[in-house]
Prior knowledge:
The protein is an all-beta fold and about 130 residues long. It contains no helices and 13 strands.
Amino acid sequence: MSMIGTATNSSPYLAAPAAATIENGKNHFVTLGENGVSLATEGAAAAGILLPDTEDKVAAGESVTVQIKDRTLVQVGAAVTAGDPLASDANGCAVKAAAEKFIVGYAMESATAADQIIHIQITKSGFVPKAG
């Protein structure tokens, strides 16, 4: 794993190997673990989002670039409204964050259906508190 940019780690990008084969992962949330990057699961504490130029199929061990901060594009798994806190669904797509799910960022625009691509401001705001 290496940071792309200065030694002070101010880069918004992280290069790391894919932990396993990733298919159709561009604009999806990912987590970072001991073996590399994996598509995020529902509510997971995602490290960032795979870039739009990510190959359709990435083999385990191949390098991928993850945007870990600032504004970028993300694929939604359901309709969202501008300003919604966003979390990962089971497929690494953005959905409105619910209780006990990790807020990866905030929707900068609305989407009316799943599979649309929208702008997100990555904030990594922690987990939504449990209701009640």
